[in-house]
Design a protein that fits this description.
The structure is a single chain. By secondary structure, the chain is an all-alpha fold. The chain has a domain at about 20-80. Helices cover about 80% and strands about 0% of the residues.
């Protein structure tokens, strides 16, 4: 049995991420449909509850992904392209 590297684990989780995000959203849609059949007041109450129970975790994951992508872009910008000069080095 071989151990998975951190990069392999991240790739596996990245492939599973859409499924993990779609499940709570799908359940939320089912709950909202069921509440809409019972009445307007219940539908609004369920919609507010879903905004926090489903919306906040999905937003946190999306912000974490955006932050990681921005951090990766920032790190790659520090190193100049081949043949480029680093300003104020050795002066």
């Amino acid at each position: 049995m071989t151990m998975l590297s951190l990069r392999q684990i991240r790739r596996i989780l990245l492939m599973l991420l859409p499924l993990m995000l779609a499940m709570p959203v799908g359940l939320g849609v089912l709950l909202l449909r069921a509440a809409a059949h019972t009445g307007n007041g219940e539908a609004w109450a369920v919609a507010w509850m879903l905004a926090f129970v489903v919306g906040l975790p999905v937003t946190l994951v999306a912000l974490a992904i955006a932050g990681a992508m921005q951090g990766h872009a920032r790190v790659s910008r520090i190193v100049p392209f081949t043949g480029g000069k680093i300003p104020e080095v050795g002066q």
